[in-house]
Amino acid sequence: QVQLEESGGGLVQAGGSLRLSCAASGRTFSSYAMGWFRQAPGKEREFVAAISWNGGNTDYADSVKGRFTISRDTAKNTVDLQMNSLKPEDTAVYYCAADYNPSDRVGVLLYEYDYWGQGTQVTVSS
Q1: What's the chain's average pLDDT?
Q2: With bands split at pLDDT 50, 70 and 90, how would you rate the model's confidence at 30?
């Protein structure tokens, strides 16, 4: 089992920044690729960003490329999502997810992830 807990959400004006953090506990964190997904009201959950088990590979949704940066600290068992130049359309509940995957590949599909956090709300006002 892997337990995930997100933090760092909140209300921010358009153009502002937020940093989300996900703390992992349980099984060996280093063997897991980590991802961030989001779900806006009335919409399906969608991929945002992912990072491989060793941090060597990352992937981003086109909508956040150049604005969001995913990183991980294996020693602290955390994965962060730095979000800059936020837009109202970034408003959503953001979820952290873990995928047992000790390879360079990162998943972008929901079913590829084994464990999920409870989510943290991000609201961007215009």
Answers
A1: 95
A2: confident
- Of 6, 34, 4, nearest to 121 (Cα)? 6
Edge-to-edge strand ranges of the sheet holding 78-83: 2-7, 18-26, 78-83, 68-73
Q: From CA 126, how far away is CA 117, in angstroms rounded?
A: 28
Phi then psi dihedrals of residue 89, to 5 deg: -70, -5
Range 73-79 average pLDDT: 93
94 contacts 120 by C-beta, under 8 angstroms: yes
Query: For residue 65, which of 79, 45, 80, 85 has the smallest C-alpha distance?
Result: 85
Backbone angles phi, psi at 29, to 5 degrees: -60, -35
Pick the closest to residue 4 from 119, 117, 120 (CA basis). Answer: 117
